[in-house]
Amino acid sequence: MVGRAVALAEGVDVTRRLLAAAVMLGAAVLLALFARDVWHWQRAMEDADARSRVGAVAAGAWNADTTLPAGVARRLLGLDDDLAFRRAAMHALQQVDAKGNDRNQKVRSVIEATLGRIVRHDTNATRASRSADYLGVLLYNDPPSPDQAANAYEDPSQGAPSDFQTPEQKAELQFSAAVRLDPDDDNAARNLELMLRRPTPPNHKGAPRSGGGEQLGQKGSGARPAGHGY
Questions:
Q1: 185-208: per-residue pLDDT in tens?
Q2: Where along the chain do its domains lie?
């Protein structure tokens, strides 16, 4: 009986050791896969940022090929806000040189709403500022609302954009917000300067131009590819 009890105890001990070894092996495998996914996210972000400095890329360019579920490493690395900004910026760049009209206004409205959320809620001043700058360019090129004439000269610094403001006033409000959020945002400062240079209410027939021929909304003046400056 004693020998049998000893053998049974030894068997339980071996089982425990095997289970512990299996758990440790599983943890090691998960850590290795996580490290691989982290590396893939880093490469994806760096590569897409580099390409976006040359020109607009697809909003999905920052997606990483991961082994674990995509959200695991992404959330642990805190990339959700970065990705949201970059994707919104790319969608904005696809519309930045276009005039708002009946065909594209729904798409533009979704992009503008996304940028507005980033401006209001992103704690990163650089991302929030650049989102406000993109939003200002899009708003400038939106069609006037039917009832804007009632307050055509309303001070754009008072309150949030509304249907009673002209596209120019809404854009100026966003450029001002961008400069407040990040005083080093040269694009936003340049766009705000172009707006403030206008001595009379604009006729909305074109984007503001400086003496050097810069045009609001053109790449290099009113917009920058995502990733620039990080």
A1: 999 999 999 988 876 554 444 444
A2: 1-74, 79-230
Phi-psi region of 217 (alpha: psi -120 to 50; beta: other; left: phi over 0): left
- For residue 74, what are the CA distances in angstroms to 42, 82, 159, 194, 229? 10, 10, 36, 39, 22
CB 174 within 8 A of CB 135: yes
Cα torsion 37, 42, 48, 53 to 10°: value is 180
Q: Which residues, listed in sequence order, are joined to residue 209 by a DSSP beta bridge? A: 215
65's tokens: 């090929």
Over residues 73-121, the pLDDT tens digits come to 888 888 888 899 999 988 898 887 778 787 888 899 999 999 999 999 9
The candidate with the shortest Cα–Cα distance to 136, out of 227, 216, 198, is 216
pTM for this structure?
0.66
Gap between the Cα atoms of 222 and 217, Å rounded = 4
Structure tokens at 123: 């704690």
* Sequence letter at residue 30: L
d(CA 38, CA 153): 52
Residue with tokens 């027939």: 205
